[in-house]
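Batch manifest line 432
LIGAND: fe (iii) ion
JOB: complex structure
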Amino acid sequence: MPTLLVNASQVVTVAGPSRARRGHEMRTMEVLTGAAVAFGDGIILGVGPQDELLKRYAGAETIDCGGGVLTPGLVDSHTHGIFGKPRHEEQELRASGVGYMEIAKRGGGIHGSVRDLRTRSEDQLFALAVPRLQRLAAHGTTTIEVKSGYGLSVEDELKSLRVIQRLAAELPMRIVPTFLGAHEIPLEYRAAPRTRDEYIALIINEMLPAVAAGSLARFADIFCEPGVYTLDESRRILTASRAAGLGIKLHADELEPSGAAELAAELGATSADHLAAVSDVGIRALAESGTVATLLPGTMLFLGRPKQAPARALIEAGAAIALATDFNPGTSPTVNFPLMLTLAVSQLGLSVAESVTAATVNGAAALGLANESGQIAPRFSADIALFDIGDIRELPYWYGDNRCLRSWCRGIACHGGDGDGTFPSPSAGHPL
Ligand code: NIG
Ligand code: FE
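JOB STATUS: finished
ARTIFACT:
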C-alpha cells in the first residue's frame, strides 16, 4: 500500500537532471509548498499538490509531517565509520601546538587506530559501528559511504570490509563500501627489512584481488598527501584499483597542495575529497572534469585549521561540489550532517540551495548513485528526511541542533516514527 506524506510546510525536491549539478546549476533547488509525497515499494510514486495526491492515492496510509520540511535523505559520501576507540587525547595535543602530521610521525593518529582495530573481532567492530551509524542516520542521512582503512593488512582490511557488508545487510540505510588500504603506510613497512614498496605491492597483488573477488567494495580510495602516498604511488594504486573493477576516489590536497586534484581529474576519479589546499590549477582541472569535488568542512573546523576549501572558486570555475562529514576518530568525529551545511553557508560562502544540492544530488553523484538517490522525484528511491523546521533555510541556521524527526531509506523507516521499534534511539549509549 502506498504511503502519503502530508502537511509539510515545504517539500524540497532538488528535482532535475540525474547527474552532478555543476557551477551555477547548484543555485536552484526546487521548493514546493502545499505539496505531498507518495511512495510505495521503496520508490517515490508522485510529488505534487496535496489535494491531487490525496485523491489519486485515496486509501493510502498518510503520515502527517506537522508543518515540517521534507528533503531528499542526506547523502554522506565520505566516512571512516569502522574504528575502535575514540582518539580524544589528540584534540588536546593539537591544542598545545602538536600538528596532525607530527602526531602521525610519533606513531599516533591513523597508526593508533590501526593498532586498536587489529585487536578487535568482527563482532566487536560491528557492535561499535551500529550505534555510530544510527547516530548518523538520526541526523537525516539515509545513504552513508563507509571506508575501511584502519586495518592496513590483508586480514584486517578484509575484516573491516566484511563488517561494512554486514552493516549494509542489517541496517535500513544504504551503505556504500570503500576500500582504503592506502590510508597510510603501516609502521611495520617503514623500517628494514620491509619497505613501503612491499606494502604497495601487497595492496595491488593481494588486497585488491581479494576485495574484488568478494565484491567487498564499490570504490577504492587513497590518502594522496605529502608524507603519506606520493602522486606516483597514488597513480599506480588507483590504476590497479580501476583495473580490479572499482571506482576511484582520493583524499586530495587536504593539508598541502601536491597535484592530487589534478591526478583525480586526469584519472577520471568519481570524487576528489578535502581540497582545503587545492591549487588554482587543481581547481581548473576539477572544473573541466567529471570528478565531484567533495568538501569536508568539519575536518578543518575540528583540526583548528584556518583555511577551508575554496568552495566559491570551485563553483565559479564550474565544478560540482558535494559535502560530507568525514566522520572518523581523528579529524572529524561528528555525526551531524546538517552542521556541515552550517559550515558550508557560514564558512565556505555557499548559499542554502548550493549546500542542499551538495548534500543530496551531488553526494549521490559522488557515489555513482545520481540516478537512484538524492531527489524527491518519481522513480527515485524513497530516501526522504523530515526536519522540524518551517523553512529549509532553518536547516543550516539552528546550528549544532538536530532537527531531524524522521527519515526513510527505500521507503523503510531509518529514524523516528515506526522505525523506533527496530532502530534504537541514538541516545541509547554505545558499547565502549
Ligand atoms: O579524512 N586524511 C586521512 N584520513 C582521515 C583522517 C583519518 C584519521 O586521522 O584517523 C581524514 O581526515
Ligand atoms: Fe577522510
